[in-house]
Design brief:
The complex is a heterodimer of chains A (486) and B (439). Chain A is an alpha+beta fold and 486 residues long. Chain A has ten helices and 24 strands. In chain A, the strands form five sheets. In chain A, strands 1, 2, 3, 4, 5, 6, 7, 8 and 9 form a nine-stranded mixed sheet that branches. In chain A, strand 12 and strand 13 form a beta hairpin. In chain A, helix 3 runs parallel beside helix 5. The longest helix of chain A is centred in the N-terminal third of the chain and has 18 residues. The N and C termini of chain A lie far apart (60 Å). The radius of gyration of chain B is 24 Å and the shape is globular. The longest helix of chain B is centred in the middle third of the chain and has 18 residues. Chain B has 439 residues and is of the alpha+beta class. In chain B, helix 1 packs across helix 2 and helix 3 packs parallel to helix 4. Helix content of chain B is 22%, strand content 41%. Classes of the chains: A alpha+beta (486), B alpha+beta (439). The interface between A and B is large, with 82 and 89 residues. Strand 4 of chain A pairs parallel with strand 2 of chain B, so a sheet runs across the interface. Chain A: Belongs to the peptidase U62 family. Chain A: It holds the Pfam family PmbA_TldD_3rd. Chain A: InterPro entries: Metalloprtase-TldD/E_C, Metalloprtase-TldD/E_N, Peptidase_U62_metallo, TldD/PmbA_N, TldD/PmbA_sf.
């Protein structure tokens, strides 16, 4: 189908200055069990094409699942009509940009071979873990496990030369347990309740994610939380584990650095940014321990790829080095818009669409914190009074990505350099612009873990994209911490 | 698309083997999306998509497939191929004790055959009305279709041609007048009026900004802001399944431990809403489902699966058992008296990014956004810098709820994750004695 699509596209009639085809196929399946019963088996097959046109300074697109020559020609005509209709009324004169015409092929880990997806065996595995979570305990009132696979294959073709094919294989395991007693309930999960353990690769992810044996372990932690006191309130040190660091990075570094936000595109929906175009190259974003990279070549992360959806080649870029802001998360078009505004600040290959039926915009991809030099025991030992928090459960931040409040599933007190008892409903709040400057210790590679999210929401029309975040454990000084309702 | 959908259903019926049954759910649209920034066009395009959910059942076993359709003859061999794959998958799954399909076929059709002007004309109208101001937002326009069919011959169809223009006018920084409108007919005159009114309101936002210290303040929440507060109850609050799983933020309400103000009555009002009156298993939704009545728990949304699992009656809810057509009863405070009744406090036009800080306690946090004003002695004094609140819904809409307005607004959800939303909410504004600001 991919070669056929390229041939049909190249045979279309066009007068456009530039046009490109992005054909995407997604094939997925979800196995799930809840309370010892298999949930309905859900499969998904999604195929369609997006045609993008730059013409006379305007930008137009049209998406269709009618991939016949006639269907593609109609889409091309509609995209061209939109480019013409908006030429002269656009935020940027698109005739000033030359989008890449790339050539090549990228195969993500596991994409080169068929997945060993044995439904019956996998359902049995999920049922076993689910049963281990329940184990006859009346306090366990809800327990579930699931495993999703997704294969994505796409070809990007530019008229007049240029074709890139990319293929990805992804897995998302999950498990969640709710314990209830005396009118109170606590939910604990494997990697979060929103698909935090999502990676590219094959079936090895099942064991790497810790799904085997997770049922009993997660249930025990839910019961621990049920019996635990609320997290104390006050100003103290905070040790964040990777399952929470991913959210902290996502909300208070990733989104603020998106160049289209800084240029105002998202002000009606996802919001703007406290970061401005003049900050790059000198703004002290965090303490000197903070090093943040955009790394689409970290192959097992969820958003690893070879080229973005505007055809730009993807390479590792340091966004924040030794605490100083270096570059934004902006693709070719946003970079050109920033240059037109007088700011030649560079960017990365992050112009991405969630699927064939949405246009590419600036998105996070793999956005990571580079490991430091502290062992886990050294991180704990450096805290006189504080809390360890793990696994995000609640997230809220203002539309400039500054004032945030996050909560976690699981907390543990730290006193005089030692881990103490479990606390429930741990949360903290702060301000992005100052929070990262309080980073006082960064864990080494042994504390590092690969996480992500399948559902980063943004854009008009709305798009939920796949994002990867890898991070070591980190310690922040003097954070405003709180617990649940007394 | 209706004819194509019927044809696919007929084709599937002809392919069924003994003991097999199917259901089909279609969600289709052809939408022009035009995105604006700084009063100009950022991206303009069209999305034509049709997604079909096929559920194949045999006895107590069933499997489902979501499929993008081409909308032409190519779909028939594709469905034949999928049918073979689903039959193979049926061999891998166990009997499902909770499967429940509608056994009482009831077909229906709802067509809103309005005609919109070309989207290019609508864009010209917007650009002209927004000349000289910093407008940002999204126009979505075109037909949206929903269909259900099953092997028993049931066919339900809803087709609407509509537009939704969600926009803001920016004064400076993060200060903006936020608006949204939707409809089945386009009026350039109405658009000009709305943008002109918003232009006038920009003057208030250009006053010197005030910053509040954390603490407790009187506040008025507009219908849009109240919709954000109540949206948190849609995170499993109205779901019977989540109640049974002890994960609902309304668990303490359902158990009678806590209550809201007697002024608060919430109903799922399918009859007055914009969402389809049928759902993916073929059940017809009742005209209305009481959820909260005079502050007390009144009911929940029950999907067919939950109904079967717990042996209770369903009420046509979808898989997620969330509200799609929310109705909040009006109060007694005339809108014209809101500022006077507020006296001194916050006038909150919009809230943003809410989440639970303690789900089981109904405690939520979130931010003010766009236009929030400081009011003194019944008069708007200054726009406020954004503030974070952290408070219990049981307090805000319970002990602290002072009044709801007489007037209500119908808010059509501009959301478009995966597809254009058909959700809506009709609700008043809310005056509260105290909201807790924390940052």
């Amino acid at each position: 189908m991919f070669d056929t699509m390229e041939q049909r596209f190249r045979a279309l009639k066009t007068r456009a200055d530039f046009c490109a085809l992005r054909y995407v196929e997604e094939d997925g399946e979800t196995l799930a069990v809840r309370q010892g019963v298999a949930e309905p088996l859900r499969r998904r097959l999604d195929r369609g094409a997006m045609i993008t046109v730059l013409h006379k300074g305007g930008y137009g697109y049209a998406a269709t699942a009618d991939c016949s020559s006639a269907g593609l020609q109609a889409a091309l005509d509609r995209a061209t009509a939109w480019a013409e209709a908006t030429a002269g009324h656009a935020v940027y004169d698109y005739s000033q940009i030359r989008l890449p015409k790339p050539e090549g092929r990228y195969l993500g880990p596991g994409a080169e071979q068929a997945l060993d997806w044995n439904r019956k065996a996998l359902l049995d595995l999920l049922l076993d873990e689910s049963a281990a979570a329940k184990a006859g305990d009346e306090r366990i009132v809800d327990w579930s496990a699931e495993l999703s696979r997704l294969a994505v294959r796409q070809r990007y073709v530019t008229m007049g030369g240029g074709a890139v094919e990319q293929a990805f294989q992804m897995l998302i395991p999950g498990l969640s347990v709710t314990a209830f007693a005396d009118g109170e309930s606590q939910t604990r999960s494997l990697g979060g309740q929103y698909g935090g353990i999502c990676r590219q690769g094959g079936m090895e992810i099942v064991s790497e994610a810790g799904l085997l044996g997770a049922g009993r372990r997660v249930a025990d932690e839910a019961l621990e939380l049920l019996a635990a006191p609320n997290c104390p309130s006050g100003t103290m040190d905070l040790l964040l584990m990777p399952e929470q660091m991913m959210l902290q990075i996502h909300e208070s570094i990733g989104h603020p650095l998106e160049l289209d936000r800084i240029l105002g595109d998202e002000r009606n929906y996802a919001g703007t940014s406290f970061v401005t175009l003049d900050m790059f190259g000198h703004y002290q974003y965090g303490s000197p321990l903070l090093n943040v990279t955009y790394d689409p070549r970290q192959r097992n992360e969820f958003a690893a790829y070879g080229w973005d959806d505007d055809g730009a080649v993807a390479d590792k870029v340091w966004l924040i080095a030794d605490g100083v802001l270096q570059k934004p998360l902006g693709g070719e078009i946003s970079q050109a818009r920033a240059r037109a505004a007088g700011f030649d600040i560079g960017g990365v290959a992050n112009s991405r669409a969630c699927n064939w039926n949405r246009p590419p915009i600036d998105r996070m991809a793999n956005l990571n914190i580079e490991p430091g030099d502290k062992r886990m025991d050294e991180l704990v030992a450096g805290i006189e009074r504080g809390v360890l928090m793990n696994t995000n459960v609640s997230w809220s931040i203002d539309d400039s990505r500054n004032k945030f409040q996050f909560s976690c599933e699981y907390g543990r007190l730290i006193e005089n350099g030692e881990l103490k008892g479990v606390v429930k409903n741990p949360g903290y709040r702060g301000i992005s612009a100052t929070f990262w400057r309080s980073l006082k210790a960064v864990g080494n590679a042994a504390t590092f873990d690969v996480m992500g999210t399948p559902n980063c929401g943004k854009g008009e029309p709305n798009q939920a994209v796949r994002v990867g975040h890898a991070s070591p454990a980190c310690v922040f000084a003097d954070v405003d911490v709180f617990g649940g309702e007394a | 698309m209706r004819a194509h959908f019927s044809r696919l259903a007929e084709h599937l019926r002809s392919q069924l083997q003994a003991g097999e049954a199917f259901t089909l759910w279609l969600s289709a649209e052809r939408t022009d999306f035009v995105r604006f920034n700084h009063g100009k066009v950022r991206q303009a395009g069209q999305v034509a998509q049709s997604y079909l959910d096929i559920k194949l059942a045999q006895g107590e076993k069933h499997v489902s497939q979501n499929l993008s359709l081409a909308g032409n003859d190519d779909d028939l061999p594709l469905i034949d191929r999928i049918l073979i794959e689903l039959r193979a998958a049926l061999q891998d799954v166990a009997d499902d004790p909770y499967m429940l399909l509608n056994a009482a076929p009831q077909s229906s059709e709802r067509l809103d055959a309005t005609v919109l002007p070309p989207s290019e004309t609508m864009v010209e109208d917007i650009l002209a009305a927004a000349a000289g101001v910093d407008l940002v937002g999204i126009l979505a326009a075109g037909p949206v279709q929903y269909g259900f069919a099953n092997s028993q011959g049931q066919l339900n169809w809803q087709e609407t041609v509509s537009w939704n223009f969600d926009w803001s006018l920016y004064a400076h920084g993060d200060k903006a007048v936020k608006r949204g409108s939707a409809g089945k007919a386009w009026s350039s005159e109405q658009l000009r009026t709305e943008i002109a009114e918003a232009r006038e309101q920009l003057a208030l936002l250009k006053r010197p900004v005030k910053t509040l210290a954390p603490g407790s303040y009187r506040a008025y929440f507009t219908p849009a802001a109240l919709a954000e507060l109540l949206s948190m109850l849609n995170w499993g609050g109205y779901s019977e399944k989540q109640l049974r799983a002890k994960r609902s933020p309304l668990l303490k309400l359902a158990d009678g431990e806590l209550s809201f103000s007697s002024m608060l009555t919430v109903t799922e009002d399918t009859l007055q809403g914009l969402a389809p009156a049928f759902q993916a298993e073929g059940f017809i939704k009742p005209d209305s489902v009481p959820l909260i009545s005079a502050g007390k728990y009144a009911g929940s949304l029950v999907s067919p699966r939950t109904a079967k699992e717990y042996g209770i009656a369903g009420n046509g809810a979808g898989t997620w058992e969330s509200s799609e057509s929310l109705d909040v009863a009006a109060g007694s405070l005339p809108h014209q008296d809101v500022l006077k009744a507020l006296g001194t406090g916050l006038y909150v036009s919009n809230l943003w990014y809410l989440n639970f800080s303690d789900r089981m306690a109904g405690r939520v946090t979130g931010m003010t956004r766009f236009a929030t004003f400081w009011v003194e002695n019944g008069e708007i004094v200054a726009p406020l810098n954004v503030m974070r609140f952290d408070d219990s819904l049981y307090r805000l809409l319970g002990s602290e709820l002072e009044a709801l307005t007489v007037e209500r607004e119908l808010l059509a959800d501009p959301g478009s994750y995966g597809a254009r939303s058909s959700a809506s909410a009709r609700l008043p504004g809310a005056l509260v004695r105290a909201v807790n600001l924390v940052l």
